[in-house]
Amino acid sequence: MSTPADVVAQLRAVLGERVDTSPASLAAVRADKSGHAASGTPLAVVHATSVADVQQTLRIASATRTPVVTRAAGTGLAGGANAGAGEIALSVRRMDRILEVRPDDLLAVVEPGVVNADLNTALAEHGLWWAPDPASRATSTVGGNIATGAGGLLCAKYGVVRDAVLGVDLVLADGRLLHLGHRTVKGVTGLDLTSLVIGSEGTLGVVVGATLKLRRLVPGEVRTIAATFPGVRAAAEASAAVTASGVQPAIMELMDAASLAAVHRLLSLEPPTPGAAQLTIQTDGPAAGLEAERIAEVLTAAGGTVAVSHDRAEGERLLAIRRSMHPAMETLGTALIEDVSVPRSALPAMFDEIARVEREHGVVIPTVAHAGDGNLHPNFIFDAVPDEFGVIEAPAHIWAAADDLFRAALRLGGTLTGEHGVGVLKRRWLVDELGEDQWDLQRRITRQFDPLGILNPGKVFAD
Amino acid sequence: MSTPADVVAQLRAVLGERVDTSPASLAAVRADKSGHAASGTPLAVVHATSVADVQQTLRIASATRTPVVTRAAGTGLAGGANAGAGEIALSVRRMDRILEVRPDDLLAVVEPGVVNADLNTALAEHGLWWAPDPASRATSTVGGNIATGAGGLLCAKYGVVRDAVLGVDLVLADGRLLHLGHRTVKGVTGLDLTSLVIGSEGTLGVVVGATLKLRRLVPGEVRTIAATFPGVRAAAEASAAVTASGVQPAIMELMDAASLAAVHRLLSLEPPTPGAAQLTIQTDGPAAGLEAERIAEVLTAAGGTVAVSHDRAEGERLLAIRRSMHPAMETLGTALIEDVSVPRSALPAMFDEIARVEREHGVVIPTVAHAGDGNLHPNFIFDAVPDEFGVIEAPAHIWAAADDLFRAALRLGGTLTGEHGVGVLKRRWLVDELGEDQWDLQRRITRQFDPLGILNPGKVFAD
User: Which of B190, B448, B449 sits opposite A434 (nearest CB)?
Assistant: First the structure.
């Protein structure tokens, strides 16, 4: 066995200054934005600047059987990129080049560390965009979006990450480089390993490049609709009615009363009507105006108080209320941010279940939802008590409430996680959703990529 | 070892009349629509009518180590479902029920044997459709579409099968049933095994059910544009110009002079101008009219003679010319139908390569292309000489020409197969595209689903 000092010395010998053992850096990579941090301190942070750096790191990791946790911006919400004792934190954040933009083929080739918003700024010059838009898009990277299979606000109309990636370059645990996928619209040569890597949370390899499927910027205006309802169930029913009407909004966000109140306080806005819930809906494209009219009719018929805005800036202001959810929750305490997804028609029933869990477990669960696609973010609020290592862990009664909520989502035909991933926070429920046979099969598949089990051990699959 | 007679007896004992050993049935399952047939005669055809039938068949197959070739309508074009000596042909064609249609959640749950067109007829009553539209849609099944990762005419605008399936139920080689995927718009719980199964051509398990992502029928009119060009390169350049213009047609099909001449002869139409190639383009949705005008301008500027039709029936008549390609090729001899796909901007260069291959190898290669997505179907025409078992195999000089063409597609950033799959016809080139390391990894992944190697052996992966 190599000692930790050996491993760091071997990394330094080939990567020099790119191996970082400063206390601040080692502390920073222990946590993501989930509120959870890893136990202990990793061996080193490697700031890779090239594919070769990643390969060298993995060769040393394999030779010394040292676990590797890949990360970039650290904006994850499931603890999937948290690096702890005995582990190498491999950061691809500095691999942030846009290597190729092809407007004629509607594709771009990028390195994993490019920030989603920076990519889209560069693409806008060509009249193009990459559709995935997680709420973290100003800071999260394309590599992280791919590793988690990120979603966002626009998914019902414009798809998720899996719909927007043609191929990835992947470094395996032993340092070999594979080129997965294709540059073409269609391609069915062999098994679709690109899709397998998307959402695999660092367990199959390190994504060192991606060929992205682009869209042209949507022409025309946008309309933004704000609708207030007496309660969250009425708002959820109204959103289901919009989906059932056949009109496809670009964005349809739901905020319950507790979320709305917290954000209004944070932004020093006038307090909302007590108990009221809100839908914020945006239409785009050539038919934006007509679609907004039709949606306003549906919402009014569902009992909403509706206002339609033609002004893009006013639309952004309305959506900023939704985007302030995370900072607003931080003012209430520590939040365990959950991510269940249910079939769209089950949204009202899922809000009933959340109310039941709040009641039965005596907890507060402010909830927002991407109502257009049935993805909810219940925030379990608690008072954090860091342990001796500074690690925050949700208390048992919060986990009991979360457990109850997860099982309710599964009963409604839903899934544990729509867009954040499993990480460490949801690994104990993974087998409940997959079943023993599928869990075991998935585990054996990861071993074909990583026979020694050095890639992000303990994440996704709890042994 | 069990004798073939033992295996059939065991199948009969549990499946009774659903085990078919009539000479006509055994002969029929040796071939698909590729022009290729398996050597020898399979042991039996099992006509499964339930998930339990599939499980029973696979349990017996595993216990006796008998290979299983899953098939349904037999419309494949790569020999992937051809069953030969010593194999069980497991037909899921009779499992053709539509189990659930949910307009509010835009999903349907179906059995694998339902015919694509029959499904869409049923969905139309709800104002819905399933977008994948292989040219075989009148006869091919949803299960076959999933097994091959089928494409079709509408892919650039409406996606491929992988974009239109939320989950599959899969029976493994040992008879266990797994439920893969989810019913929600978003879902990232664990690895995406649903995408792995799509396009896996019967090597991972038997698809016994699928949860499909539906679309609402597109409102508005369609416009159909026919444009004639002096040669195929000019037509290919015009199609690339349409893509580059930013207008997204629903359909954009290209036919070269040889294809056009053969179809016109078959349909007793007036002969086309010698050497002329044709683009047939359709726009749909609320902006169909404006988009057709813009496309007509681009085509005229590119040197085309352009006619726009507002009449849906006339549009169907124009597309029927394209859809008659397969029967027209049959009038010329036996066709080896290829399926390369290249980035859209490389379409003119790929036609240059086809002309070069024709010249250098002295072969005739009538070619059509889904020009909107860069997917070409070159048809290598030859005189068939069946061997002593009635098996048709393309002669060496045809394979040499095909080899040259495949390598050209790879050089242009393309892929071996856009939508037909690898089957037996392209397995010898698989490693050229994937590389040794990825080929080996894919092979090992299949073994996690099928440790004994009884699922469609010899297909996709040539040992």
Answer: B190
Q: What CATH code would you report for A98-216?
A: 3.30.465.10
Distance in angstroms (rounded) separating the CA atoms of residues B377 and A384: 62
pLDDT above 90: percentage of residues in chain A: 85
Digit-coded pLDDT (tens) for B132-152: 999 889 999 999 999 999 988
Pair B72, A213: CB distance under 8 Å = no
Residues with Cβ within 8 Å of residue B156, at least 6 apart in sequence: A185, B243, B248, B249, B252, B370, B372, B373
DSSP letter for A324, please: T
Of A162, A186, A444, which has the smallest distance from its Cβ to B419's Cβ?
Answer: A186
User: How close are the terminal C-alpha atoms of chain A, in Å?
Assistant: 22
Q: How far apart are CA B169 and CA B214, in angstroms?
A: 18
Chain B residue numbers with beta carbons less than 8 Å from the beta carbon of A422 are 188-190
Chain A residues closer than 8 Å to B149 by CB? 188, 192
By CB atoms closer than 10 A (0-12, 13-18, 19+), residue A112 is: buried
Which of A153, A185, A198, A442 is most worth mutating to test chain B (most B CB atoms within 10 A of its CB)?
Answer: A185
pLDDT per position as a tens digit, B49-78: 999 999 999 999 999 999 999 999 999 999
Contacts of A144 in chain B (CB under 8 A): none
Interface test with B, best of A188, A204, A443 (most B CBs within 10 A): A188
Judge: A184–B415 Cβ closer than 8 Å, yes or no.
yes
Domain boundaries, chain B: 4-93, 98-216, 225-411
Dihedral of CA B97/B102/B103/B106: which sign? negative
Radius of gyration of chain A (CA): 22
Q: How far apart are CA B207 and CA B168, in angstroms?
A: 7
Measure A150 CA to nearest chain B CA, in Å: 8
In chain A, how many H helices and how many E strands? 16, 18
pLDDT in the model for residue B115: 98
Q: What is the fold, at CATH topology level, of the domain defined by B4-93?
A: 3.30.43
CATH 3.40.462.40: does it fit domain B225-411? yes
Could you tell me which CATH class the domain A223-411 is placed in? alpha beta
- A243–B186 C-beta distance less than 8 A: no
Please name every residue paired with B337 in a beta bridge, in sequence order, or none if there are none: B379
Q: Indicate yes or no: CB of B186 within 8 angstroms of CB of A448.
A: no
How crowded is the C-beta side of B443, counted as CA atoms within 13 Å? Answer: 17
- The reply to whether B98-216 and B225-411 are identical in fold is no
SS3 B461: coil
- Give the three-class secondary structure for A36: coil
- Judged by DSSP in three states, B320 sits in helix
DSSP β-ladder status, B251-255 and B367-370: antiparallel
Contact B190 A438 (CB under 8 A): yes
d(C-alpha B198, C-alpha A191), whole Å: 8
Tokens of A221: 């205006």
